[in-house]
Amino acid sequence: MKGSSVILFQNCRIIDPANNIDTAGDMILSEGRITAVGKAGSLKLQSSEGIIFDLDGKWLVPGLIDMHVHLREPGEEYKETVASGTRSAAAGGFTAVACMPNTSPVNDSEAITALILRKAEQAKMSRVYPVGAVSKNSRGTELAEYGEMKQAGVVALSDDGRPVANSQLMRRALEYSSSHDLLLISHSEEMSLSENGAINEGALSTRLGLRGIPHVAEEIMVYRDIALADYLRLPIHIAHISTKETVDLIRRAKRNGSKVTTETTPHYFSLTEEAVGRYDTRAKMNPPLRTSEDVEAIREGLRDGTIDAIATDHAPHSNMEKDLEFELAANGIIGLETSVPLAIALVRDNLLTATQMIELMSVRPARILRVPGGSLSEGSIADVTVIDPDRKFIYTRDSIVSKSTNSPFIDWELQGKAVLTVVGGEIVFNELG
Amino acid sequence: MEMETEYCFRHKHILGLEDLSCDDISFILQTAESFREISSRPIKKVPILRGKTIINLFFEPSTRTRLSFEIAAKRMSADTFNISASTSSAKKGESLIDTALNLQAMSPDAIIIRHSYSGSPHLLAKHINASIINAGDGFHEHPSQGLLDMMTVKQRKGTLQGLKIAIIGDIAHSRVAHSNIIGFSKMGAHVYVSGPATLLPPGIEQLGAKVCRTVEEAVTDADVVMALRIQKERQLDPLIPSWREYASFFGISSRLLEKSKPDAIIMHPGPMNRGVELDPALADGPRSVILDQVTNGVAVRMALLYLILGGDR
Ligand SMILES: [Zn+2]
Hints:
The structure holds two protein chains of two kinds.
Chain A: E1 7-16, E2 21-30, E3 33-39, E4 51-54, E5 59-62, E6 64-69, H1 82-91, E7 94-99, H2 110-123, E8 127-132, H3 146-152, E9 156-157, H4 167-179, E10 183-186, H5 191-194, E11 199-200, H6 203-208, E12 212-213, H7 216-232, E13 236-238, H8 244-255, E14 260-264, H9 266-270, H10 292-303, E15 309-310, H11 319-322, H12 339-348, H13 354-369, E16 384-394, E17 413-423, E18 426-430
Helix pairs in contact in A: 1-2, 2-3, 4-7, 7-8, 8-10
Chain B: H1 22-36, E1 53-58, H2 64-75, E2 79-84, H3 87-92, H4 96-104, E3 110-115, H5 120-127, E4 131-137, H6 143-157, E5 164-168, H7 175-186, E6 190-194, E7 209-211, H8 215-219, E8 224-227, H9 243-250, H10 254-257, E9 265-267, H11 280-283, H12 290-309
Parallel strand pairs in B: 1-2, 1-3, 3-4, 5-6, 5-8, 6-7, 8-9
């Protein structure tokens, strides 16, 4: 993506954690790159051609990167497509997303990877980094062809949606992925404990008469995954962590030198299991929403750096999968358009600094996936996001850009919003005027 | 002059005892007592619900509860229709909401639903105008059973206040247990539960029950001992090794019952696995009120239908 236009941002609060910068300033993008960063009022456009944005103190940050989304294409285009999903991403301030392979067919081949990348190119919205399957058809029995998929463009591997249940296969996957220098992302869940569960196990599951998913189902598998990675001295990334004990496990592992990284989602730091209310399927996801104690631990993990990234696990579903008996309804919620305001709430609560928030949503995802971005250095790709931290809005069903509307945050009053998204120097979303 | 605020029953649906107040429950039981007399008349029919349409929508096989609701509705001259759908066929094609919208076209006044998934009555209530009565949803609630159990105990003991109720067995998978724990504790009784730890769900204390490690502890000085059905068909996990072992360690025997109050009564929501949950001699003995439970079932269900559909609402 090579940008043709020149953009000058004036009066910005430039937040660039990679360069230790949080200061007032100006910036010029041209030819798809960041060409100048300077003090406030110091930069001018050379010619009359170009767009000038006076940001009036709004945040100018490296483009946000969501390392865990489901774009549903190929196979479930009625829920989301690469085009609609990346439009939703752009509207949420994301210049790049990593999409999980549990499509239909599963992305376990170079053909599917190429198809997704072709669709992304046509959409001209956010960048898309496909994640390939760990096992053929994500069935958990044979390794997929990592080398071929990497050549086609996958940036990591995962059987997300389900765990790699067999420990021997997980070991071989870690080993073989290291030969291709690809990161393994684990959906850590001990299925024999969680199977048929619908919500977090505890007093609420008992009260609602729903089978529970005990938090140990997550922790046992996180422990196994870290133990295997440690044994092989290889890195591993644990997806969407949701429990206090998982945060503790990962904190301890990092202290002991494990090469483990992890992500959590806005719903795990914003909602408790009580959001299920009276069988509200919009609050059904896997892992399930947990208790307030878990939410506190997740927040602390974000604050002290145990958790490396905020990802959305954007999981679109139509009403057909959600307007059902609770136990039959599909797991997952959309998240791309609510991630920024929910994360900014942590900054307003003084739990995170703005710098920490941008580290979690841009810098570290870029480093973990080893993709461009995450920095506002001169010469970097012109992927930037403008955030208005004060903008209040009501997140209505009608305002949703994603094809699906399965969100527990509908009708919430939110504060803080991405107002401009620039990918490779091209404006892909503009609410700045 | 002092005005007494008059009690008024204000529920459109009966989804669970968790939604009813102590006053609501007392009023339902009182109304049910007045209907019990109708069932002993030579002509057991009153015209209170003439012209009302009631649909029995059963997604799980049940003769007893369905029949009890049907008799209750017919004794009040309502028109009743039975629809049995298997959950599996519903899974294949029509969703529950589709089914509900089709029924809506028949303009029913009430739909009585039994479903193996918890929360199904709540889903129905969200999408349809009719009153919904929960006749048992998953492991969640079975409010009419809870009410008829309270009615039965109240007849024998005069009050519910301060009684010790012991509920023994599969608490985790029993909607009857859930409704009884909620109902009896709302009415001032003390509910104790016990059974194998595999069948005691987490956080059951928050519904109002005290958990006892041994069955003996639970039944000691109890006024009421309720044995729950072991629902083998519901169990996806290994929960008990065998019925024989269950019967000898967790079944209610006469020896165990010596620990309870001398006038303690024995209840079972049925259908019973004879010789498993309860010594057969006890089930058929003088302390058993199992048949009263059946009779009161009709009266309670008449009361519910009347309160929801009858009068000048
Ligand atoms: Zn997952």
